[in-house]
Amino acid sequence: MKNCKIYRLIIVLIVIIILSACSQDSNDKSKYIYKNYKILKEPTKQITLKPKRVNKNFELLRPNLIGLVKDYLIVIDRKAEHIVKVIDTKTNSVVKEFGFYGQGPSDFVGAVDIMAVPDNKDEFWIYDISTSKMKKFNINNILNDDCNPLEILNLAKGYEFPKKLIILSNNKMIGTGIFRKGRFKTYDMKGNILQTLGKLPIILKKDHPFTLQHSHGFMGDFTINTKTNNLYLTPLRSDIIEKYDIKGKLIATLHGPEQFYPEYEIFPVKKYHTHAMGYTKKTRHGYTQIEYNKALDKTFLLYSGRFIVNKEKNKGRSEFNSIYVLSNKDVLTEKLIFNKDVLKICISQNGKTIYGLTYIDIFKFQYAE
Asked: Within a domain: residue 11?
């Protein structure tokens, strides 16, 4: 009888420990500075988009980036001999290729972003995170066999670096990435840091030694609603959308439809006497890309939801096969479903066409409201 009571007591203690551990997991809101939560619900309207392959007449080896400049797709194919491909969307043909792997004027090592120039639709920038350089090109010059950059800009170097940048209409830039302080940084067009805006969402003790690693854990993509000037940032490993004003003040936290936070661990890298951010069994891909479309006044969010390490839980889930559409009232109104694993998207200016980049292909999807 006594042994039975002890056994029951042990069971109760185990249950209490488990419940306590669960209460301290990533769903414990006290760990974050997030406020004004708004739960995003799964939209009832779901549309399956039919793909049309763009690259029927040419091959892609390992594309990782896509952008749209006028009627031309700019594709970064990091394994190809010429890294940059220019594709005419009217003929679906490659009209120009340029750039090698390297650090020459038109070459790239790790291009991660293609940026539009607000006041000139002919011009665009390509940001190379590995060299901290931005290179400005003119699409008309490229089509006329002049692939030299109009300008090369060196970003401020150091342990901090932006992952995504947007050029503003006031001749400044704003970016998010891995920073010791702040959620955003603004830059002048010479690459100098002007301001640090916002705060890292997780609550840390003062002078925390692993701020950069936590910043990496919360690293994300962002866009600007050009009608309201609000910033929308999505940590890549969650289904959170952080809404800020242009000065970096957190306005609201949009969360859903599955409601999970970034999960990661920080571990030592003895070889380099430092620490790094790594995945756990709870780490998931969430909103991996966000893009605002002015013509439709809607925001498009590429979504996955898949577990990165614990793949047994991915039964029935594709990798990146859907886009959620966020209205100007911050409501998920539609879910666009692909039958392809799309890694990157870009959207036409009128919002009617979505281009999706897979591991080896480009697909065109027609979107009608």
From this structure: no
